[in-house]
Design brief:
Number of domains: 1
Shape: globular
CATH topology: Aminopeptidase
CATH class: Alpha Beta
CATH architecture: 3-Layer(aba) Sandwich
CATH superfamily: Gcn5-related N-acetyltransferase (GNAT)
Largest sheet: 8 strands, mixed
Structural class: alpha+beta
Distance between the termini: 19 Å
Number of helices: 5
Radius of gyration: 18 Å
Strand order of the largest sheet: 1-2-3-4-5-6-8-7
């Protein structure tokens, strides 16, 4: 997913599929949460980063924002939305954060997840309400110096959600790249594959 934002700069959002993208996403989170908000390392990097999906936003190829998704049976948990300060400028008008969230919810829909749970600071609730979130009745709690509100919502399942019948080769494609032929498609077609291609 891409687009133009603020002075014609290109914003792209994608699921992380390699180590370089993971490093970029984690660097954005460290800068925002540890640097700006003084979140202790052990709270920010809580042991869940290798069990989820990371989403990275770039502006003209430069890491600008990140988000993490974790999965629990019949619901997903989008969390850790972070945008670097210089990409929150008025010229971007929240575009990076909006694109990250839109991509993430579209991604979850394709994977078949309609229900979601998350946490929000009270003043950011209107942002999550754009995506169908509502506060849980018993959901106010504290993490360090911050009052958090547990949120949840259910979104409509898209018509192109992946199923066991979506196609063998399609389901082998890299995360979030289900509509583009991958290395296995080329191999099945007899096209020589060089490099990792994954």
């Amino acid at each position: 997913m891409g687009g133009r934002s603020g002075q014609g700069r290109a914003v792209a959002v994608t699921a992380v599929t390699g180590f370089d993208g993971l490093q970029q996403a984690l660097a954005v989170r460290a800068a925002v949460f540890m640097g700006e908000h003084a979140t202790p390392y052990e709270r920010e990097f809580d042991g869940n980063d290798l069990s989820g999906t990371h989403v990275l936003a770039t502006v003209d190829g430069e890491p600008a924002g990140a988000m993490r998704i974790r999965y629990f049976g019949d619901f997903a948990m989008p969390e850790r939305l972070a945008v670097l300060p210089k990409f929150r400028a008025p010229a971007f008008a929240g575009n990076v954060a909006l694109k990250l969230a839109r991509y993430t919810f579209r991604f979850l829909g394709r994977k078949g997840f309609t229900a979601f749970y998350g946490r929000s600071l009270r003043d950011v609730l209107p942002f999550w309400e754009l995506f169908g979130a509502a506060p849980l009745a018993d959901g106010v709690f504290r993490i360090g110096d911050y009052e958090c509100v547990a949120i949840a919502g259910v979104r409509q399942r898209p018509s192109d959600a992946l199923t066991v019948h979506s196609g063998h080769l399609l389901l082998m494609r890299p995360e979030g790249q289900w509509d583009r032929p991958g290395v296995h498609d080329r191999a099945a077609a007899g096209v020589p594959v060089t490099g990792s291609g994954l």
